[in-house]
Amino acid sequence: xxxxxxxxxAKRVLSVEAQCILxxxxxxxxxxxxxxxxIVYTVSHGGKIVVTGVGKSxxxxxxxxxxxxxxxTPALYLHPTEASHGxxxxxxxxxxxxxxxxxxxxxxxxxxxxxxxxxEAKIISIVGKMKSPLALQSxxxxxxxxxxxxxxxxxAPTSSTT
Length: 162
Description:
Elements: H1 3-27, H2 30-44, E1 49-53, H3 56-70, E2 75-77, H4 80-83, E3 96-101, H5 107-110, H6 113-118, E4 122-127, H7 133-136, E5 140-143
Parallel strand pairs: 1-2, 1-3, 3-4, 4-5
């Protein structure tokens, strides 16, 4: 690929991602405020934010947990598979769970829901499919869908992770 083609491709990728960010802004509604209110209530009452996801969504979840912790918000990343092998003990009834899943159908995540419910943790999900099983089982669900990924093959989660 020539340098000009590389430059044009970089500009195309940034344009696609910028369009997706603007579309995300336009999707904000009362559910976003509901999620913020739940998080503020949780933290002000001694709870923490337990952030989870699997695959690429898990990597984003880990980054979000780290960013929250950096800002002084009590937060941690919980790997959904490790949760079912003893790590679920970090979740208490005071906590809120923030779940990232584009499909909303990952078995690892869906298998975690009953355990979270048994611990009385509230669930906020960010999904790409608003009618997915995860979305339907969440207390608050936020729309994380994108029209297209910036990846030329529309496969790698580029725009959706942005």
